[in-house]
Predict the structure.
Amino acid sequence: MTSPDGRLADSRIQQWAEARLGHRFADPGLVRRALTHSSAASGAASYQRLEFLGDRVLGCAIAAMLYGRHDEAEGRLTARLHALVEGPANAEVARHLGVPELMIMEHNARAKGLHLSDNVLGDVAEALVAALYLDAGWEAADAFVQREWGRLAAEGRQLLADPKSRLQEWALKRRRGMPSYVVLDRQGPDHAPRFTIEARVRGEAPSQGEGPSKQEAEKAAALSLLESLPQ
């Protein structure tokens, strides 16, 4: 249910939180803020500050989860960690929870598809972790992470099949740091853009890729670079 001005009713947000996050918030304003895009608010009224905290809580919870599940060297654990805490994985969690339909944002932002963006959805997922942490403490946040990100951890092969994840694993295993991606060019109209992106790993020659979105161009660049690297 929405109010006359189009805002989601607190009752609907609370019902969703109970059903999908497994928690009844003492402060429903926290989960509302976690779902609010900057286009519909400013400063602390959007998810941005919560996302800052949630990123740290999520990383700690996943690190502890992986340490308990896998008797592996630090490099492999690091690769698993990064595959689970970066945008695509977090966005998948948000989509699984039905976040796109609940995002609070201006009409123009939704018309541009920002409620479907991996970057936006990933930030919201982290903000929800922070909302749980602030409302009910570590145990509630950790239980949420164990359930939602634990599901992704069980699908580790699929995550690492992504060329960006494979490139990341290659680089971290050899202590080259995280790969980086640089936009070299953007052409075409807003409804049909074409991106050219360069993938870089320290100590190796960069490679380029093209695609209709930054994400697809990054994958193409990562795949191109992988094909040139010693295995």
About this structure: DSSP finds twelve helices and three strands in the chain. The longest strand covers residues 180-187.
